Amino acid sequence: MMRLLASTVAAQCGLAIRITKTTSALSFCVQSPVASAVRSRSMCSSAPGAKERRLQVGASTVHFVEAGDGNRGVILLPGALGTAWTDFKPQIEGLPALLPHHRVIAWDPPGYGKSRPPDKQFTVDFYERDAAAAGELMQKLGFQRYSVVGWSDGGITGLVLAAKQPERVEKLVVWGSNSYISDTEANIYEGIRDVSKWSARMREPMEQVYGVEHFPKLWSAWVDGLLRIHHERKGDICSGSLKHIKAPTLVVHGAKDPMIIPDHVPYLLNNIKNTDLHVFPDGKHNIHLRYANEFNAIVAKFLLA
């Protein structure tokens, strides 16, 4: 799989960008990273001061976690099949102290985790549907404007939301995300379809959420959904919409992320008007878990600037 070094990103981007090297030990209740295309996720599901809530959003009853009591909002959007707790426990725990004027909202997208039944239908517009639901949730919580922090699939949802509702999104942070699917990535997705080939450490958090028998079926449906976008849309998820994003955007990148090809980082930087970049040279796909303290500090600084 292809790798991207920080120096390569700088050379490829025709923009003035800041690259900060970050190294640190693992913190919070997360798993050690493994040399795999799929991220490790935490199985822990509690944090002091966090409240679990549900709201009706369209046809879905959406489960989310709320932490902090500020009057500004930030929503955390998890990756594929991800939930608030599997994907963002270190952020639910750590960000409220760094963002005392914000309420941190971490959701289970419709069809995932506790925002079921029913399971998600991976139509070619499922990112658009998630973006619309996330925006509706934040407005129902009283936020007319808010910031968006999205990982992997959640970053894609964030890009779509910021492009579709530019007047609503104050700031945007994405990592491990792409606005189109290349042939190489279609092969990557097909290669990780069979979860029986994953290590037990990689499977267990998702098996805890979806069950040992059901998780492989839902994961395979996700793969089919991405391949459907690759085939029916020629891989275009939201590339043509990036120009509509008005929010200052921070692209965070793990230079050894095996889930996205190198082209995506400069593509985002060159097609979103107001962007900055932070690179973790040794980071893979789960940099917010592996480098939780540093990641949280970087995000907080950007949102407060």
What would a concise description of this structure say?
This protein is α/β, with parallel strands linked by helices.
How does the SSE layout of this entry go?
Layout: H1 6-12, E1 51-57, E2 60-67, E3 72-77, H2 84-98, E4 102-107, H3 126-140, E5 146-151, H4 153-164, E6 169-175, H5 183-191, H6 200-210, H7 214-232, E7 249-254, H8 264-271, E8 275-280, H9 287-290, H10 292-304
Parallel strand pairs: 3-4, 3-5, 5-6, 6-7, 7-8
Antiparallel strand pairs: 1-2, 2-4
Helix pairs in contact: 2-10, 3-4, 5-7
Domain AB hydrolase-1: 74-203
Organism: Anopheles arabiensis (Mosquito)
InterPro entries: AB_hydrolase_1 (IPR000073), AB_hydrolase_fold (IPR029058)
Description:
The structure is a single chain. Residues 1-39 have low confidence and may be disordered. Helix 2 (84-98) packs across helix 10 (292-304) and helix 5 (183-191) runs antiparallel to helix 7. The chain has an eight-stranded mixed sheet, with helices on both faces. The protein is built from ten helices and eight strands. It has a domain at 50-180 and 237-304: Rossmann fold. It is globular, with a radius of gyration of 17 Å. The longest helix is centred in the last third of the chain and has 19 residues, at 214-232. The protein has helices spanning 6-12, 84-98, 126-140, 153-164, 183-191, 200-210, 214-232, 264-271, 287-290, 292-304; strands spanning 51-57, 60-67, 72-77, 102-107, 146-151, 169-175, 249-254, 275-280. The protein has 305 residues and is an alpha/beta fold.
